[in-house]
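Quick log. Single chain, no ligands specified.
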Amino acid sequence: MVNAFLQRLSQAADLTDGELSAVDELCRQPKDIAAKKYLSRDGDEMVSFPVVLSGWAARYQILRDGARQITRLLLPGDAFYFGSAPNGVAIEEVITLSPCKIVNILYSDMRRLIDRFPAIGEAMRTYGCMENAILASWVVNVGRRDALERMAHLICESHYRLALVDLDQGQQIHFPLTQDDLADVLGLTPVHINRKLQQLRQDDLITLRCKQLTIHDLRALQQVAGFDPAYLTPRAQSQPDQQSPRAAAA
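-> predicted structure:
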């Protein structure tokens, strides 16, 4: 299996084979985690950070009334590295949304690796900048876009991010989010989520069946969303073809 974390870091910086091998060594003992299992809880001491090698997970916060707001989707290759200070405490809950392959990397091991290979530190810094850009985009999505635009934007973003670590992905993606999950991501009710998914289906833009999402017209979906993938480009490079994330990742 291709190490999606290495793919993500390779998008962020030019790493040598030796640097990639050093990171790969930290990922040698992944664990298979079932869906709906906690990877960290609010207030946990964080001496290590989880890296998602496959599957989907989420960062979220619980409001006073018990409502949940998902603040970040962790897709293959993503790490919960910037949500807490090294040896500090977790400030969010992290839970698997689907069966995942997870590796926990000690902060101390990563610091030693960065001291030895500064380029890895640069890759992690650039990855952190992309995380911040996604957070800003989510604020705009929930705060200013209407419900249909929010849904379309989330689908376009997820498709693009997955394509960065899977060059053979095509227009069909594994999409394990339930309507309750989508409601907690987009700040909508499950009933509203259902209506907007139906609208996208009726417009022949997507098909969602058995957790497999097929995009029939990516460019039209991007136009509905007002999607511009520039914020997902982790380092300066030529502007990718928005219709083909595969071309951007190649």
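Confidence is low (pLDDT under 50) at residues 236-240, 244-250.
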